[in-house]
Amino acid sequence: MIRPNFDDIFMELAVNLAKRSHCIKKHVGAVLTKETRIISIGYNGPPSGTHNCDEEFPIDGCARDSKGSCTLALHAEQNAILYAVKNNTSVEGSTLYVTLAPCLACARIIFSMGIKRVIFMYSYAEYKGLPFDEGLEFLKKFGVEVHKYEKDIKFEDNLI
C-alpha cells in the first residue's frame, strides 16, 4: 500500500468539504493545518443561522455585490480562520489548503493572521475572468509561501 502524503490528504479533505457548500455558483473548501494536524476546516456559504442559497434562492442564488460576489457568503478560508479563532486556536504559522486561490480580501486576512503557507487547486483569476491572481501576488509579495496543487482529484461536482 502506498501511503499518501499530507498535502494529498489535506487537499482531498478540502475538496470533500467543498461539497458541503450551499452556493449555487461555486463550491470551495479549506483546511488549516499545523505540521501534520488539522486545526480548522471551512467551506463557502452564508453565516450559520441565516439561509442556504441553494434552498432559498435555487435559480439565481443570493444577491451579488458590485464585483459579482455573493453579498452574504463567507469564503471557505474565512470560515476556517473564524472557526479556529472562535475556538481559541491560533492559526499563526499554519498552512492553508484551499480549492480556489484566495481573493485579495482573503489574502489580506491570511497574511494578517500569520498563516505562512497557502496551497491552492484552482486560480481565482481564471474563475472570475481577472488578468491575474491578485490575492496570490499579495501573499507572495509579503512572504507567504504559495504553491499550486498539481495533482488531479476526482470529483463529480463541476462547481468545485
| Distance between the amino and carboxyl termini | 29 Å
Strand neighbour order, sheet with most strands: 2-1-3-4-5
Radius of gyration: 15 Å
Total discrete domains: 1
How many beta-strand elements? 5
Provide the CATH superfamily: Cytidine Deaminase, domain 2
Helical residue percent band: 25-40%
Following the backbone from N to C, one meets helices and strands in this order, namely HEEHHEHEHHE
* CATH architecture name: 3-Layer(aba) Sandwich
Looking at this protein, list some descriptive labels.
single chain, CMP_dCMP_dom, 160 residues, metal-binding, Cytidine Deaminase, domain 2, alpha/beta, Deoxycytidylate deaminase, five-stranded mixed β-sheet
Task: Indicate the topology.
Layout: H1 6-18, E1 29-34, E2 37-43, H2 53-56, H3 76-86, E3 95-100, H4 104-112, E4 117-122, H5 124-128, H6 134-141, E5 145-148
Parallel strand pairs: 3-4, 4-5
Antiparallel strand pairs: 1-2, 1-3
Helix pairs in contact: 4-6
